[in-house]
Amino acid sequence: MTEKILAKGSVALAMGAVDAGCRYYFGYPITPQNDIPEYLSAELPQAGGTFIQAESELAAINMVLGASAAGARAMTSSSGPGISLMQEGLSYMAGSELPAVVVNITRSGPGLGGIAPTQGDYKQATRGGGHGDYRLVVLAPSSVQEMYDLAGTAFELAFHYRNPVMILGDAILGQMKEPLLPRPALPVPDPPAWALTGARLRQPRLLKSLYLRDGEMTAHNWKLYDKYEAIKRQEVRAEVDCPPRCSLVVVAYGSCCRIVRTAVERVRRRGLAVGLIRPVTLFPFPEAEIQRAAAAAGRLLVVEMNTGQMLDDVRLACAGSGTVYFKGYPGGAVPTTEQIEQEIERIMKAGELRRWRG
After folding, report:
1. What phi-psi label fits residue 19: left (phi over 0), alpha (psi between -120 and 50 degrees) or beta?
2. What digits encode the pLDDT tens for the residues 226-244?
3. Helix runs in 20-140, H state only
4. Any bridge partners for residue 29, and if so which?
């Protein structure tokens, strides 16, 4: 029987990737995610894999593209500025329908910013970030165990839908230590039927994102659109904790939700009917869960470590139901439990706050 171990979040994610069959990692150092390549540089070769420190993030994502085209389980990781440099490659991979896992352990910004925890990369992750009509599946862990588990989920989704998947964490999740229950390592799967494995004994295959004949690019975009719609229908993940007769539901994700959860538990002990929704998939976003909460409770409070990025998705999901309040902590600021408690109490007492109507 597997026993729990004490692990750092970034290390747990790297362990989860190896146990999910990842055998190729290409990346370039940047804080606060360097524990991931440090771990993989030692462990991947021992598992029969390949670790390459690329000369840049641009090189790293194109190495991932090449390994993915050959059917390998490949991964890269970086932080905000490095992820920005990878956007062209991610667009090429989505356009070519190539699977990969990309990890963003965010740092505060914009610009070079700093290594403090932030959620300022939400829109970059959930809106593609690069050129063209494409989306990434985006997973948002909230614990060390989820950092490990969602690494495996990311590879499963990437290969099932032939699309890049991003894991969006931050410096809190990357550096904190918690108990972790590993799973038995999976065998490395054979290359899928579409992979480029050499055509000496078979008909050639073609992977591309360039379509020049009349109508080809349009048809390809609608094909991708249909895939993203299927992902929306089938892959929504969220933690919903809304007791009966809630009069306020707080929405938060990632490490920020850990703080929010404690605040919600405290105000409940004082008799306040407050619910909590934590999106685990940021794309696809749990729109139906948000809409039901807005219709039932009438009031939502969005808490983010930014100036309001998930807020837009919550407002859209509400579809005119209820009032949406917002409290943000940008630039590396981290809320305290007491601050969130005070915000909840102000709303419950109908105190004046800056707010948006859905």
Report:
1. alpha
2. 999 999 999 999 999 999 8
3. 35-46, 57-69, 80-85, 87-96, 122-126
4. none
The span from the CA of 288 to the CA of 283, in Å, is 13
Q: How many residues does the chain have?
A: 358
Helix (H) or strand (E) holding 347: helix 337-348
Q: Which domains does the chain have, with CATH numbers?
A: 5-234 (3.40.50.970), 238-357 (3.40.50.920)
Cβ contacts of 140 within 8 Å, gap of 6 or more: 167, 168, 169, 253, 254, 279, 280, 281, 282
Report if pTM > 0.90.
yes
Whole-angstrom Cα distance, residue 24 to residue 22? Answer: 6
Task: Tokens for 226, please give them.
Answer: 């249909």
Name the helix (H) or strand (E) containing 143: none
Whole-angstrom CA distances from 171 to 9, 58, 104, 117, 255 are 9, 23, 10, 5, 9
pLDDT tens figures, 123-151: 999 998 899 999 999 999 999 999 999 99
What is the arrangement of strands in the sheet containing 50-53, beginning at the earlier edge strand?
Answer: 50-53, 24-27, 74-78, 100-106, 164-170, 137-139, 281-283
Residues with Cβ within 8 Å of 177's Cβ and at least 6 positions away in sequence, in order, are 6, 7, 8, 9, 144
Residues sharing a CB contact under 8 Å with residue 15, sequence separation 6 or more, in sequence order: 7, 39, 43, 148, 151, 180, 182
